[in-house]
Amino acid sequence: MNGASTKPRRGQRLRAPQSARGVALHASAWWLWALGLAAAASRTTNPLLLALLAAVAGYVVAARRGDSPWARSYGAFLKLGLLVLLVRLVFAFFLGSAIPGTHVLVTLPEVPLPDRAQGVRIGGQVTAEGLLFALYDGMKLAAVLVCVGAANALADPARLLKSLPGALYEAGVAVVVAMTFAPNLVADVQRRRSAQRLRGRGDKGIAALLRVGVPVLEGALERSVALAAAMDARGYGRTAKVPPAVRRITTALTLGGLLGVCVGTYALLAAEGAAYGLPLLLAGLLLALAGLWLGGRRSVRTRYRPDRWGARAWLVAASGPAVAAVMIWAGGHAPADLRPSVTPLSPPGFSLWPAAGALLGLLPAFVAPVPPAPSSQRPGDEADPPARPGAVRARLRGRDGPGRTGTPAPHGQEPVQ
Amino acid sequence: MFLRRSATALAVATLLCTAAAPAFARAPGEAPAGRKLPDGLFGRVDPKFDGVWRRSVALLALKAAGSAPPEEAVGRLARQQCADGSFTAYRARPGDSCDPEKTPADTNATGIAVQALAAVGGHRDAVGKSVKWLASVQNEDGGRQAQATDGYRYWSFWERDGSSWSYATQGPSTLRPEDGDVLGFRFAAGEGTEDATAPREPADFASVCESAAEKGDKRVAIGIDFGTAADAPDGQTPPPARTVCARLGSGDTAADALASVAKPLRYDSGAMLCGIGGYPEKGCGEQVSGERGAEGRDRSARGGGAAEDAGSGGLPASVRVGAGIALIAALAAGAHWQARRRR
């Protein structure tokens, strides 16, 4: 037991708790935060602001990511963003840019094209302004990717799928099964390839593909059939008896809602229907959501310890759209700061309000539950949580879990999932 | 089961929407399908935007040439007049009363119709009513607001061939002008390319680029017309039009020439030219509707002040950039420290 005073001090009460199954942050709160940051990044091409947003996302990820396998994906998204930037620059270098400039860096030999391809240019002058414009644009794309990567690293995809509405429950189960079995598929392929090599057969070419691919597919099919039988034996896939009137209403609501969304989106995008586009879109969205909620009555399921949406989740989820709102407001008041001009070449501005808005995104780093410090694990047992002596003792004493029957349990001994 | 049904519902909804889409499509400028053009009209194109203009100009031309204008055309022109004396661009059903929403009154059409009716003679009351209406819609600065158009506000690119401006077929970033070409840019609100307004003043290469040419020097004359106050976005006044001479290198495009004489240029992510010389500070090809102009002038004083307040802070640009880089570096170091703490 952490020997301390009986009453926690005021400061300790406000500090973020250690993340456990009961106090884990709702997965959609992380996604709302990340999407707010991505929306803010898409409103500006100022490289300083974009780098600031990426740094904010990186800090929150470093401070609050857990130990799960998907928590390490932030680095992959960073590399992907850099790759996108590089590709954009290469295209601007070789295919020219529509942005005119007066500072010519290098003049590549131009490939003469027929008159039909008038808008395309291969080679030709490479101006500093054109490259800089491509850099700004590529950085915007990379920043959006990095924000999405932050959400990937922080939010548990399995918990996110469990929060889906009832009507999409079966689709969610299919996705969870696919995600769980994907590593098995990869391991299968590797096993079969090494078996082929050990038998002295090559592992390249179409014949090798068939030799490896067909058994892998067979194995996947067998596994899925076995899983289906197991799930059926446990009662998955039963549907509730819903009166036919409710079923018809559900169909009508869903169909009408989707139609409304379709027509509303078209009206918003076309010039003529701007007046009735937005109300139609909103009405269609409401109808579709109502149909979704009503359709959930068919699937019978109970939730085991659902993630609670508490005050911390509200704070985290609100900080993302707050950043986006500040960026949009700044774009209305000082557009030159958010879109630095390329002709003439000038250093990008950096003013107070957009930067302060971006720093708002740091809130989850202080408010979200802290992931537990990693104990010394053996590499390879990532699937099971480490067995801690306290938890084993608790189970032997017949309790269904620490902290449930009122006897105080040592903090942090609950197995982390 | 439910999933299958929702998938079917989605497919049917998509099919219905794609079937309904062609109903909205119509080529611009064509007469609506199946409609016969009315009698007494000059020209074959849909008269929706210039029916009154066409008729009036043709009548004036006939009168000036000395031949008698056809009575039917004059009568139909007179019937186009609204009850308050104004003329619209064209009203398909002259019997109906003028609806300011559907066909707003147009000072251009009224002006030319008054001239035509006065030249032809025999419609003194109508002419008097129209003149009174024109006097009533005069703005404070003496100008008259053109027809309140629905359309888009954008920069258009023109080339001058001989004595008139023609709409350029290539964008400024792909066109490679020759020595001695005259190019023009005009900022206006219009519905489409056939409705685009040309720069108001002509530009002549010889008068603009007077200095003696050096050997192998390529020069073009560029006329930049920032548009009328009626077309200006809220809170901005258009600078006066100007013509400049630009010097080009061998591979330069028209946009390069513009960049060398009319900085700062503003582009959006789609590489569309949004602003020349900083003129529309905000907005890029946005949709406009109805009345503008009067409100724009009132807010011009306040708008300029607000834009300056938000941006400047007194610090030089290099200090701000340095502060930004320092902040990013601090955050990155913090993230690195957090990652190491948890390793």
Strand percentage of chain A? under 5%
Tally of extended strands of chain A?
Answer: 2
Instruction: Please summarize the sheet with the most strands of chain A.
Output: 2 strands, antiparallel
Q: Strand-and-helix sequence of chain A, N→C?
A: HHHHEEHHHHHHHHHHH
How large, in whole angstroms, is the Cα Rg of chain A? Answer: 27 Å
Greatest interface (CB-CB under 8 A), with counts per chain: A-B, 76 and 64 residues
Query: How large a portion of the residues of chain B is in β-strands, by DSSP E?
Result: 5-15%
Derived structural class of chain A: mainly alpha
Number of beta-strand segments of chain B: 8
Relevant terms:
heterodimer; A: 417 residues; mainly alpha; two-stranded antiparallel sheet; 15 helices; 2 strands; globular; disordered C terminus; B: 343 residues; alpha+beta; six-stranded mixed sheet; two-stranded antiparallel ribbon; 9 helices; 8 strands; 38% helix
